[in-house]
Amino acid sequence: MALAARRAGLFGEVVGLARRAETLAEAERRGIIDRGSSDPGAAARGADLLVLAVPVRAIVTVARECLPALAPGAIITDAGSVKAAIVREMDALVPGGHCFVGAHPIAAPKNRGLAPRRRAVPRPALPADPSARTDAEAANRVHALWEAVGMRVERMSPSSTTKRWRRSATSRTSLRLRS
Question: Which domain range does residue 59 map to?
Fold first, then answer.
């Protein structure tokens, strides 16, 4: 997503967060990020947009570590799959003045890190998951961001996204078992 957004001219600066220095060095070398850090607070310092592309179980923890460093009015979004629990926890965590808009990009293969990705198989949509607390303007900005990197955005409730993802995962699993 960072590379697609950079190619579209959407970001002034992209700062990466990773545990390993080698990952950050490779991301810089490939032009995916401008700089990086293994410290969430340092990576998020002054950011007006935080995209959490970490394992689902780490989303809330990483967000908690980044929140104090964000610029006032920052928008936070994610690329996790299961939404209802994340949205509930993020709504409780994110203070006024910031806004969380959950998102679930249903497109890329399940690669980790910076491994070269095959071209993603087009999938139906990226559900953007506004909650009752989500600011409409923030949701529109996240919607526009994902569209600008080539996704067709479909808005639905967090629980609908979770149910849809589970059906999709079950379907993929059964297809694999038959082949």
Answer: 2-106+120-178
Residue 88 lies in a domain: yes
CATH at residue 13: 3.40.50.720
| Full 3-state SS string of 4-15 | HHHHCCCCCCCE
* pTM attached to this predicted model: 0.78
Read off the pLDDT band of 113 (50, 70, 90).
low
| SS3 category, 87 | helix
CB neighbours of 168 closer than 8 A, spacing ≥ 6? 106
What count of other Cβ atoms lies within 10 Å of the Cβ of residue 174? 9
Residue at 112 is within a domain: no
d(CA 23, CA 148) in angstroms, rounded, equals 26
